[in-house]
Amino acid sequence: MSQCHMLQYLARSTYPCWGHLAEAVRSAPERLQFTRGLQEVWSVHGRSVLTAFDLSPFPVVCDLGGSSGALAKECTALYPECTVTVFDIPEVVQMVKEHFSFPEEGRIHFHEGDFFKDRLPEANLFILARILHDWSDEKCSHLLQRVYHSCTPGGGILVVESLLDEDRRGPLTTLLYSLNMLVQTEGQERTASEYCSLISSAGFVDFQFKKTGHTYDAILARK
Ligand SMILES: C[S@@+](CC[C@H](N)C(=O)[O-])C[C@H]1O[C@@H](n2cnc3c(N)ncnc32)[C@H](O)[C@@H]1O
């Protein structure tokens, strides 16, 4: 049976509503709720993405777009030697300092900036969790090149995303996330090969990925 009417309804009613979500997220209460929502997942899935590879050779970590620092907290708990700089836009960093608590004080620092324009801190490991899926291939390449330049030789990049199967027919959850990205952002979910191509083009080598069996998967590459 034709799905024409539902598609028209989604296009004419639902889709325009979603088009205003970015404005909603820009309001302070919505931003706080979004950030609280983002952090919750790492109490469940943080360990699986941070132990997919041994990250102990990387004591100086920068979590780009690290939001509330939830993944940074998991990282400092799992790797006692590491310190993490959480890099995010000023509005998010200020809100996090006001509303979130940090018992690991001293090992987690916040840095305000725009990762497309401002100087990135030097680090042994850059974590990009749910960052690349927000952006077009062009913007991902630009960001990855900037990360490559700030990464110490022998350092690495850990990309945390939900990976699409190579035939792009699943997993279903990731396909739905990808549709969501199409509506809300300029990005999409990608396959491991697509990430490999983007990350390798920026200069990184030794691309490896691990499907964790949970919602988010892990990719590691080295400089
Ligand atoms: C989808 S959230 C992911 C947050 C976190 N990494 C996680 O997985 O929970 C994207 C994050 O990137 C940040 N961000 C977006 N554009 C940015 C930019 N130009 N510079 C720095 N941070 C940015 C947002 O403020 C937000 O915290």
UniProtKB/TrEMBL annotation:
InterPro entries: COMT-like, COMT_C, SAM-dependent_MTases_sf. Keywords: Melatonin biosynthesis, Methyltransferase, S-adenosyl-L-methionine, Transferase. It comes from the Eukaryota. Residues 24-204 form the O-methyltransferase C-terminal domain. This is Acetylserotonin O-methyltransferase. The lineage of its organism: Eukaryota, Metazoa, Chordata, Craniata, Vertebrata. Homodimer. Catalyzes the transfer of a methyl group onto N-acetylserotonin, producing melatonin (N-acetyl-5-methoxytryptamine). GO terms for biological process: melatonin biosynthetic process; methylation.
